[in-house]
Amino acid sequence: MQDFNIVEMCLARHARGAKAEQTAMVFAAENAPLQSLSYRELDDLSARFAAALVSEGLKIGDRVLLRLPNIAAFPIVFFGALRAGMIPVPTSPYLKADEVNFLIKDSGARAIVSAPQLFSGLQKEIMREFSGTIFLTADNPQAALSFARALHEHQPLGDIYAATKDDPAYLVYTSGTTGYPKGVLHAHRSLLGRLPAATEWFCFADAPQRILHSGKFNWTYVLGTGMMDPLYHGKTAIVYEGTNAAERWLNLMRDAECDVFIGVPTIFRQILQKTDAHATLVPMLKHAMSAGEQLSDAVQSAWCERFGFPIYEGLGMSECSYYISQRKGDALKIGSAGKIQTGHRIDVLDENLESVPAGEEGMLSIHRDDPGLFLRYWSLDATSGVPLEGDWFRTGDYAVRDAEGYIYFMGRRDDIIKSFGYRISPFEIERVYRDHPAVADVVAFGEKIADGKTLIALCVQPKADMLFDGDALIQWGSERLASYKLPKKIYRLDNFPRSANGKVLRAKIAEVAICVRQF
What we know:
By secondary structure, the protein is α/β, with parallel strands linked by helices.
């Protein structure tokens, strides 16, 4: 397929057609009215910023690093870079100076676009070594070009870079939980790789759809479900920048009249715990989606009871976005993320690259021909593509598939707890304990106490003003888990250590938590 550019598919074709004046994106912020851009406006602004990048001497293939919150500048820059054949590099707004400098050097970025509040603390460190172009979203003539002035002073770049579906499009970085973040380079065909989700997770055939996502754009989950996928299908994407409060999400759903809400389990849990909201408060809402960690049974049950429909879970990774999900019409099985989406070439394989029988553990593996698979891991001098074993990319994620095709996620190789001859997924333990009335959040992990001896440990973040009772926690587990899955040590920690992308750093839990009970 020739001339397949994400900008053409997500913006330009809509801007030329019947959807030109339809709202493409809505931007919400605390104590501020909603702002929106039509497809025509977003297409025009991205074309103007593409011209600004070209005028600064950037070339096809150059990297443009984004250090932006969920504001209109993000899609303008992201699509502007793609329009000019450059590679946008979204980064987390929570990164520190050393982390940002690593990404700048590793990506070889030629331009940085940043919000002033995300740049001021890093200015000396970045300016010392960076020789490219810096745009700020507010005027600061001593440090950078004005983003707003660049949009005003440039005429739209007329042509969209004639990419093929296999050309590089954007570069994302993994969370770096085991070391430095790793760059993952995606092609324009990543849009095609997410098409199965349109019917098997999103249900895009339903109309209208105004989609509110609770996450940040630097996460591939949000880049896809919160921006590119809705725009590709001509829908309206709604994003928010501000403090994370349960009431705020409900108000946004109502005020923005969204009919799809996408988040992580923590957001859904907070809405249920901190409000008494029901479907009557958000009558437009018809569909909910979750990823990032597993939903607990109690959250799923309570959500269905209050809002009249379930939360549909999905599973994916930076290298392929989402490829497993629950879907309307299928029974939702406890502990399962759903089934492999139709159209993806995914299998559960043993070490010999053979499909494992139903009920046996294997590694989720992605075929080299799956359109959603990334191009390669990034480095400036890399020439090889995706690391393969035979025809398969081995994800490192272990899972079990049942006779009906449902996938049960076991975890990464390092996550799986090997205790007294058993292989135990921490996620099934966490799922049980998240339903405990005194538990706000929980992490299960293996703690090695001697050669060949690993105990199951549980670290609990208790709810405010709730009694922390280790014996009661063990009793809770004994009524719901096999004996070999029961925690032998209970830790307490009010705030879990997390990466810049919000992932819990399991390996650091025991270093900072307090052991309150051992059995």
